[in-house]
Amino acid sequence: MLLRSYPELRTRNLDKVKAALKVSTFSDRIDLPAGRRRDQFIANAARFKEAGLVFIRYDSPISLEVNPRNDTLIGYQIREVSEVVVDGEAIRTGAGDAGCLIPSEHSWCVRNPTGYQVLLLRVATAALRRKLSALLGSDNVRLDLRQPSSVGATRALVRESAVNFAKQLDVVDPRFLPLLVANATEDICVGILTSLSEQFLEAERAPAAPSAVQLGRVEQYVVANYANPLTVETLAEISGVSAHSVFRHFLSRYDCSPHEYLGRIRLEMAYAKLLACHDQASVASVALQCGFPGLGYFEQAYRDRFGELPSPMASERRPRRR
Predict the structure, then answer these.
(1) In angstroms, rounded to a whole number, what is the distance separating the alpha carbons of residues 227 and 242?
(2) What confidence category does residue 301 fall into, taking pLDDT thresholds of 50, 70 and 90?
């Protein structure tokens, strides 16, 4: 079960089930076949401004008709198989599949003959449009997304990000929660756009090249603002070109993405700050100050970079490990 730290409802009362589904999955009509065993309905929901996750489990047959309104939804089956009908097209999804995308303002229905166990990813469509504009360097964009099942080897990347986000939410130190949400929302939005957006995939063939001066602005901004989340909107604003072109040419010039470059800067700053620390409790504080989304993430990245776990070094002054 996912999102254990975000319980919303556990009930066998069918009226409460219907009311909860209307809120959590924007359901306009719900059919719970009569004469069936009334299983416990479980809903765990983590709701944030521009993205959210809902885990639902109901072990009896259920059918839903849904209108997501201003959000884009992707449903990931955790168990069994569902049949989702979007604009009259039936899409079968099972555990481990890339999921089914439900565009905003599109009605859809889903039939679950053996029950319902799903992780539902919600992303504000306005956020996707804004980030697509930044990626393409144009204000005149149309959000046209493919089904994940049609995108080949990259189709499972967003599912992995969503599931990892759900797992991290259950264990994250509350102090890191805003950073975790900001980073996960950015990763998920960019993942959706770079793998499912028709306009981005078309632009991928011939991105415009930024100048050395424009790339230098990005590098200077990252160094000066290393503790803050880095968004595609910021990359476009600072560079003056599309964020997509910054990604491509940052890779050719620096052999990494802007976000990877930011990670390197954060590790260097964390190493310097640990030189002044005296107790193990300060390690979490350093991770937070340097913009890492969680202590576990910081420890793994630090060990990969320096060959050891982060620890106070004021009394030891150990030479840096490469």
Answers:
(1) 23
(2) very high
